[in-house]
Structure formats: C-alpha cells, structure tokens
Amino acid sequence: MPTTAPSSRARLLAAVAVPLVALTAACGSSTSTSTGPSSSGSTAQAAGGGDKPELKFAYFKGDVAGPEAVVATDPGLSGKLGVKLKLVPIDSGVAGIAQLKGGAFPGISGVGNPPTVAAIGKETPIEVVFVESLDSAGLVVDKTITSDDQLVGQKIGALVGSTLDFELRGWLKSKGLTDKVQVVAFQSEAALAAAYKSGSVHAAYISQAFLIDLKSKGGRVVVTAADIAKLGYAALGLLIVTQDYAKANPAIVQQLVCTVRTAQQLELGPDAARYITPAAGILGVKPQQAIDGTKDYPYVPDAEQLSWFKGADGQVTSGKLVQNFTLTGEFLVTQKRLDAVPSPTVLAAHVDPTFVEAAYEKNACA
Known about the structure:
366 residues; alpha/beta; D-Maltodextrin-Binding Protein, domain 2; 2 domains; five-stranded mixed β-sheet; three-stranded mixed β-sheet; globular
C-alpha cells in the first residue's frame, strides 16, 4: 500500500511549499480555527496573540509541563505561531476525543494511544502528527513482595482502561502472568495510591508523580514503562488533529509540530526552569512541582521520531505507531471498548508522516 493517503501527500507538498517565513509568522485572517465551545470555564491563552486568529487546543493539567503549555506561555515560541493559541483543559483522553468530535477544538496534545485507537476504530476523523512522549510509570510493590515470583496470586491496581492499564497487561502477558494475578481497576490514580498505602493492594502500576511518593515510602519498582515499551506495549503521548483541520491548515499544523518539538528540547535543557515556571500557572501546580515532575520526562528523541511513523521499508503500516496501535486495539477489544481491531491499513490512514518528514528531512523548523 502507499505510505500515505493522497490527501496526506498533497499536504506534504503544500506544507513544504510554504516559505519558511510563513511557518514562523502570522498566517493572516484566512486561517480557520475552532469556534466550538470550551470544555470548561477556564482556558489558558497564548502570550502575545496580537490580532492573530484564535486556535483552541486541548491539554492536560498536572505536574508534568506538557510542551503545549510551554508554547502557550513563552512569547518566543507562541510568536512563531500564525494563531493565538488558547488552551482548553481536559480531564481524560476519552473525554477530550468526545469534545473534539463535537467541535470544541481541532486538536489535543498528550493524548494516549488507547483513546486514540478507540477513536480510529469508531471512524473518528483524526490523525497523529507527532509522537511527543513515552510514559514514565512503573510497577511498584511494597515490602510484602520481595521477589517477582511473589506477584503470583496478588492484586495489582491500575487505572482502568488507561495507557497504564494497557502497559501493565502487556507486560503481564509477556511474563505469562495474565491468569496468575488479578488486575484491580481504579477510577483515579489518587485512589490507587491511597489503596496501596493502606495495604488494600500490595502492587500498583502508577504514573511518575505518584510513583515518586510511593518509592519514598519504601516501594520497590519491579518494571518501568521504558522497559515495557521495548516489548511493544508503549504508552504514548500523541499530538493529534482532526483531518479536516490538517487539510485546511497544513502550515499551522507544521508550526505546532515545530514549536512542540522545540519546547520539549527546552524543557530538558539547562534553562528548563525558565520555561517551565510560567507554564506552571496554567498547569494548576506550583513551579517547583512542575520542574520536578518534568525533569527527565521521556520525550521521544529526535532520532526516533521518524521510525514511529514509517518502518525500514518506508511504509506507514510497518512503522512503530501502527504496530503499537494494533496491540492497543487488541487491548481495547478485551476491554470491550472496540468490537474488532482496526486493520493496519485503517490505522495507517490516521497516521500522517507529513509533518515530521518536513520537520526532520525538509528542515521546516529552521
């Protein structure tokens, strides 16, 4: 099959043909943006919007400073967008996808692979344009479990239906433990952490913010998200947009990819605090919390970005994203959130390499 749909190839030509100055300046009043309602009463507006048209974009609050928050609060980065970025907070990827489908905004930063694949399986017209990060979670056990074989017969807590749940079950399958442990579903990680501390569960697969606390109280980490990702069960943070928005605004989407990429590099650099501190204001946490939560966060390195979109044969169907999405689809079927796993061809139709190719091969971010 072709590596991209005809419309994607057309967008690649359109995006690359746009002069680089257009990728770092305002695109004028002709730019279409989301005009749907906000998902909540609070929004976070970009610095220095001027007379640019507004673009609503969904994001997650919390300890980790997502790159979109840095872009929105840094005048140097937001000034490279041809739109005034207005961030709309969401509580979950599933809710965010539903709001996107309803027209509240045309894109989300940091959404996970389970809600993304569920949306694809339900024919939601979205596409992945950038792979932001892996996960930084881990399986932590208390002092009652001193060796890995003692996991047999245990209850392991996890956030139900999440990327964390996907990762944990993938690891259990790889270790032959699927039928030998009981995965206990929790509706929030705060509830899971509380259950672990009370001894209701002696093992928990939980994200970095809670993992740090549980480790400080004597918890032992059995396996990390980075370890599990090597098995193919990676929990991803994705930048997605609707297909209509990408088709109508390739230059804006290219700018978003470029500024998000730059923000991630700055967040892990020597001046990280300078960029994360302003972003903390829209994350709902104190600056030091955001700095600590973002330190060493596993953003996907530049050298690996293209391999997520295409395999060694140049096909999207053999890229790591489609492989990951296939495994994610299998997970969603077991969770009864999909009736069938989307085919590689269907999945590939929602993975657009246009913008990362332009960024990494055509120097569009220069």
